[in-house]
Design a protein that fits this description.
Order of helices and strands: HHHHEEEHEEE
Structural class: alpha+beta
Shape: globular
Strand content: 15-25%
Number of strands: 6
Strand order of the largest sheet: 4-1-2-3-6-5
Distance between the termini: 15 Å
Helix content: 25-40%
Length: about 140
């Protein structure tokens, strides 16, 4: 994904049809570039160094995991996921989740290949069922 974004950055000014030829959404990639610019501006305003991971993708992965830790869940033996952060079951009974059927991840895998950890963007509770969406 990072390599796709880097190639978009290289080609977006010279080749307007690059994203379409590679079956990518130009509007979403342009939005990602705007977000990157905003982040750089925030770093500069706070006098923090602007650094790139270059080829060390693990640095970016660690950053994403640390930033989204509150939205991390670990797979438990029954196949459900439980939040990684400490949560008292008595105060929050909906800390166990299933993958939402509309989730891209749920549609790509089978029960025997479920990831031990997931990072999710949204959790949905419907009745007694709680689901992770956008993981």
């Amino acid at each position: 994904l990072l390599n796709v974004f880097r190639q978009f950055e290289v080609n977006r000014n010279d080749d307007a049809g690059w994203a379409e030829r590679h079956l990518l959404n130009h509007k979403l990639l342009a939005r990602a570039a705007q977000v990157q610019l905003q982040l750089v501006e925030h770093l500069q305003r706070l006098s923090l160094p602007v650094d790139s991971c270059v080829a060390e993708v693990q640095r970016l992965q660690r950053l994403m995991c640390a930033a989204l830790f509150l939205n991390a869940a670990r797979r438990v033996p029954n196949g459900a996921y439980r939040l990684c952060r400490p949560v008292a079951d008595a105060r929050a009974p909906d800390v166990h989740f299933q993958l939402h059927s509309g989730s891209v991840y749920a549609s790509m895998i089978h029960d025997d290949t479920l990831a031990n950890f997931v990072i999710f963007i949204e959790a949905v509770c419907t009745g007694t069922q709680a689901s992770l969406v956008h993981n």
